[in-house]
Amino acid sequence: MGRVFLVDLDGKIYRCKFCDTSLALADDVLSRSFSCRKGRAYLFENVVNVSVGQEEDRNMMSGIHTVSDVFCCGCGQLLGWKYMIARDKNQKYKEGKVVLERWRIIEDSNEDFNLDERSSDPEYP
């Protein structure tokens, strides 16, 4: 197996809680109002340094979706999931987007940036 080259991000970012690998820019958050089994989760437009697992159909709160688990390339930890196919036309905006579970990520060390204080985007549920 070859060496993995990780992407480094500048600015306010989210990192893997387990190995501190950069995952996403704060500007790429689409929604902070998603849920997972252990609480809150955030929908991202773009993420880096993740690998995508096999596709499977899952019955989610918003209906049945084809999703793939996403894992940290730094440590292999499960971080969330990627929406591959949304069957309901009202859910199509999720396709290609990634959900990271809040308890699995940490915020940038910048004191002005706090995951739970930023308002949710009303355009996305």
Instruction: Count up the helices.
Output: 0
Please trace the helix and strand order, writing H or E for each element: EEEEEEEEE
- Largest sheet features: 6 strands, antiparallel
Give the class-level CATH name.
Mainly Beta
Count the beta strands.
9
Q: CATH superfamily, please?
A: Peptide methionine sulfoxide reductase
Q: How many domains in all?
A: 1
Distance between the termini: 40 Å
Corresponding CATH architecture: Beta Complex
Mean pLDDT: 85
Helix content: under 10%
What order do the helices and strands come in, and which of them pair?
Blueprint: E1 13-16, E2 22-25, E3 29-36, E4 39-44, E5 50-60, E6 63-72, E7 78-86, E8 98-101, E9 105-107
Antiparallel strand pairs: 1-2, 1-9, 3-4, 4-8, 5-6, 6-7, 7-8
Walk me through the structure.
By secondary structure, the chain is an all-beta fold. The chain has one domain (13-107): Metal Binding Protein, Guanine Nucleotide Exchange Factor, Chain A (Beta Complex), CATH 2.170.150. 0% of the residues lie in helices and 47% in strands. The chain contains no helices and nine strands. The protein has strands at 13-16, 22-25, 29-36, 39-44, 50-60, 63-72, 78-86, 98-101, 105-107. The strands form two sheets. Strands 3-4-8-7-6-5 form a six-stranded antiparallel beta sheet, with no helix packed on it. A three-stranded antiparallel beta sheet has the order 2-1-9, with no helix packed on it. A hairpin with a 2-residue loop joins strand 3 and strand 4. 27% of the residues are buried.
